[in-house]
Amino acid sequence: MCGEVNTFLADLVSGMNKLTGEKLLDLANIERQIRARDREIDNSFAKDFQIIAIRY
Question: Are the C-beta atoms of 9 and 31 separated by less than 8 Å?
């Protein structure tokens, strides 16, 4: 993830956590989920229906 996006994501997660006053969202977990989803997009054999729909 490039630095600019990483900083933006960190700010977004921090701001969302501030809304509740609790640390409900974990930046590292969200980054892992984004990277996993990116890998699915790159995988032409992905079985996720949302990704298939985006392709066609």
Answer: yes
Q: Which residues contact 27 (CB under 8 A, 6 or more apart)?
A: 9, 10, 13, 14
Write the DSSP string, the chain.
Answer: --HHHHHHHHHHHHHHHHHHTS--S-HHHHHHHHHHHHHHHH-TT---HHHHHHH-
- Does the reported pTM lie above 0.85? no
1-56 residue pLDDT tens: 455 666 799 999 999 999 999 999 999 999 999 999 888 888 888 888 888 888 77
